[in-house]
Amino acid sequence: MNPPVIFIPGDWIGDTMAEALAGQGYEIVRGPAADEVPPHVDTAALMPLLQRADILVATPGLRVDRPMLQALARLRAVVAPAIGVENIDVAAATELGILVAHGATPENYLGMAEATVMLIAALAMQLPYKQRLLAENAPRPRELFSRSVRGSTIGLVGMGRIARGVVERLRGWEAQLLYFDPYVAQDQAPAGTTRVTLEELLQRADFVSLHVTLTAETQGLIGARELGLMKTTAYLVNTSRGAAIDEAALVRALQERRIAGAALDTFVHEPLPPDSPLRAFVGSDHVILTPHIIGQGREVMESLRTAVAENVRRILRGAPALYTKNPELLARWQERVARLA
To answer: Which residue from 12, 169, 262, 332 has the fewest beta carbons nearer than 10 Å?
Structure first.
């Protein structure tokens, strides 16, 4: 009996996932690095590799679209190492009976929650400014404009796992917590939070923190109009998806100091291009920029390796994945697996 075939792109995340799956009796087929694949995947070029796959491990840079999925008759599942699956057409996979698993480990989303709270506190206490004072051996200023998180209003846009982790970690900080999420009613939200409209949240919050997946609704959710609703003393934090913000509008708002500052871990194009106007704020006193790794550490990466390996094991024996993005598919998916077997 031939061993199961696992397709993995050739980027560094794929290297890590291949290590996690090594020595378990699978045939690992490596593809091109994700950053070498065009934005619109040339299915024909990849087909000789993909057609053999029972499972596709889709790292974030590899787009898995409907034509690709339709062409893969043997495919049982697509396994994403991370939480986000914007690079995968989940609706098409569900329609075709293909399971989509992902890395929604507690270490992953709680790490992001910790990092979000850290960024809020760093902005409040003007950490970049105070670091510069030491670097330049400057005298301590007579007047400081930093503030305490205590007594502030924090607005969370989205109330998913990460936002709930932020709420839990802010307990005891004596801050008022608002949230906007059209899909989470007040009685479904964590205690101590208040549901408001997006407009009210932007107008009232001292810190606006984004926790959304990228959809047609959230693309460009924060643009010039929304930034104009924020207080001039307010900060914007984005640890979710870069395209949820109109970057050009944000650059203008930061340049003109129409908001106090921002902390960004995600961008429309990643890695952040050398010519991005946002790079002008590197080292500034009011902006923190990190390369989409702010919540990641040893525990997170180990949890993702473990999740991918466990997801693959379960899928190959016809069981639900540890973390499934389209669980409503399970009955039809098991029928598909039976037919493939």
So the answer is: 12
Look at residue 37 in the predicted model and tell me its pLDDT.
52
- Compute the distance between CA of residue 115 and CA of residue 38 in angstroms, rounded to an integer: 32
Q: How confident is the model at residue 338 (pLDDT cuts 50, 70, 90)?
A: confident
184-236 pLDDT, tens digit per residue, is 999 999 999 999 999 999 999 999 999 999 999 999 999 999 999 999 999 99
Structure-token pair, residue 231: 């207080």
Confidence of residue 35 (pLDDT cuts 50, 70, 90): low
Cα–Cα distances (Å) from 46 to 68, 87, 166, in that order, read 9, 16, 41
Residue in this structure with the two tokens 């491990």, named with its chain if needed:
57
Residues annotated as catalytic (active site), given as ranges: 241, 270, 292
Q: Is there a contact between 20 and 41 (Cβ–Cβ < 8 Å)?
A: no
CB 151, CB 177: distance < 8 Å: no
Q: Tokens at residue 124, please?
A: 């409040």
pLDDT band (50, 70, 90) for residue 10: confident
- What confidence category does residue 42 fall into, taking pLDDT thresholds of 50, 70 and 90? low
The span from the CA of 81 to the CA of 63, in Å, is 14
The pair of structure tokens assigned to 340 is 């493939």
**Helix, strand, or coil here: 262?**
strand
To which residue do tokens 């973390």 refer?
Answer: 323
Task: Please name each of the domains of the chain with its CATH number.
Answer: 5-102+298-340 (3.40.50.720), 106-289 (3.40.50.720)
- The encoded tokens of residue 74 equal 């043997």
The predicted-structure confidence for 57-71, as pLDDT tens digits, reads as follows 999 888 899 999 999
Q: Looking at residue 26, what is its pLDDT?
A: 96
What tokens does 89 get? 């057409």
- Count CB-CB contacts under 10 A for residue 164: 21
Instruction: Give the three-class secondary structure for 64.
Output: strand
Backbone angles phi, psi at 155, to 5 degrees: -110, 125
Give the C-alpha separation, 184 to 112, whole Å. Answer: 20
Q: What burial letters (b/e) apply to 268-306, b meaning 16+ CB within 10 Å?
A: beeebeeebebeebeeeebbbbeebebbbeeebbebbbe
